[in-house]
Structures are given as C-alpha cells and as structure tokens.
Specification:
single chain; alpha/beta; Rossmann fold; five-stranded parallel sheet; 12 helices; 5 strands
Length: about 240
C-alpha cells in the first residue's frame, strides 16, 4: 500500500470532510427545506454530478475549477481519486456512505461493466471505480478523468469532454512544464495514446467516441468562463432542476 505524506493526508482528509459536510447539508435540506426542496433533491436516484474527460493541455483543469466555483461543488481529479483509493481511512470514509445492499449492487455493476481480466490486473482501477460511483451516488461532485463517464448512469449527471487543437496544447504544455515544444508534442502524443489505451482496456470503449459525452468543448479559443456557463446551462436543462 502506497502511503501518503502527512501534508497530503491532511489535505485529503479536509477535502473529504468538506464533501461529507456538503452531503449532510443536502440531506438536511431534503428533510427540513419544505416540499419544494424535497422534490428538487429527491427526484434523482443519484447525483447530480459532472464528469470531465480532458486532453492534456486542453484547459480542462481550469474549467473544472471554474465549475466548482460556480456550483459550490468539489473537484475530484485523477490524482485525488487515486489517492483516496490508496489511503485506507479516506476510502473507508467515502465507502461508508453505501449500505450493504448498495455495496453488493455496485460490485455486480462493476463486474458487468469493466473487463474482468483487466480489472484483476489493475486493483487500483477497481477501487477508483468504487470511489467514483460512491461520489456520484451522493452527488455535487465534479469527477475529472479515470473514465468516470463510462462508469455512471448518464441520466443523473452531465458528461463533458474537453479538447483543443494540438498546436494550442503543445504551446500550453511547453509553457507549463518549461520544456521545448518538440518535447511537449512528444509528451502529449504519448499521454493521449496511454489514456486511450487505458479506457479501451478497462471499459472496452474509445475515449474519443462522441456518444460517450453530453457535451464536447473545444477550449482552443473558447474562454473558460464561457465554457463553464455552457456546462452549467446544459446540466440544469438536462436534469430539470437547479444544480
């Protein structure tokens, strides 16, 4: 088991505690907020959530942060999801939101959805999938990466793919990482291939299949705030209730 550093553990605990508080407030509103609040919060069996699949250098991280600010939700990126899966107390705290029936149903669902052979070789991927499904079930979460859109029931959230032209991505990555454009392009092509292979191996899907997303945004020229506004509008129109 890979241990987290002390400061990383503290940050992870703070993040999970914030999300737990958000869930508790939501449940309290449903109990005490009157008939309208109960209808708005109870009409979904899970969620609402947003999944955000992004190309490296596409601007997806900035979009996730903008959405979190607009909605008051928590961002769970691929590093955070992996950290929760590795860290026993964090994983147990998240999974404690599921009752025994839900745990059994989730296991059955993941077994049907994910490639059994690939899942057996990638234990962390299976644990991350459990975390994603639990976060989505409770709602108010922005789930970045890890193929979350292929896992979840599309009725209860919005799946977004963020892309940008390769030259734009090369410029951004070269600037962010302080490397030459040629090295940035090589890194991007390798990362694109690795991510596509991960999704293909684990979920037997193609990452660029447009039918796997509700909304595909090209942030090569579209400003982050405009993209965030489009996502929020699509989320609210799709789910039929305020996010």
């Amino acid at each position: 088991m890979c241990a987290l550093k002390i400061d990383e553990t503290a940050n992870l605990d703070q993040l999970i505690n914030r999300q737990m508080t958000l869930w508790e407030v939501r449940q309290k509103l449903a109990r005490e907020g009157g008939e309208q609040a109960r209808r708005e919060l109870a009409h979904l069996k899970e969620g609402p959530w947003i999944t955000l699949s992004r190309q490296s250098g596409s601007g997806g991280s900035a979009l996730a942060n903008s959405l979190a600010a607009k909605l008051g939700w928590q961002v769970f990126d691929k590093e955070i999801l992996s950290a929760i899966a590795r860290h026993d107390p964090a994983r147990e705290k998240i999974l404690s939101r599921l009752d025994e029936h839900a745990v059994s149903a989730l296991q059955d669902y993941l077994t049907r959805l994910m490639d059994p052979e690939a899942m057996s070789r990638n234990v962390y991927a299976h644990e991350v999938a459990q975390i994603i499904c639990t976060l989505a079930r409770q709602g108010r979460a922005i789930l970045v990466g890890r193929g979350a859109n292929w896992l979840l029931d599309p009725r209860y959230g919005l799946s977004v793919r963020v892309v940008a032209p390769l030259p734009v991505r090369v410029q951004r990555i070269a600037r962010q990482r302080g490397i030459e454009p040629a090295l940035a392009e090589h890194a991007l092509r390798s990362e694109d291939m690795e991510l596509a292979a991960f999704i293909r191996q684990l979920y037997r899907r193609e990452i660029d299949d447009p039918t796997g997303y509700d909304l595909i945004l090209n942030l090569g020229h579209l400003e982050t705030e405009a993209a965030a506004a489009a996502v929020v509008t699509a989320l609210r129109r799709k789910l039929g209730a305020p996010a």
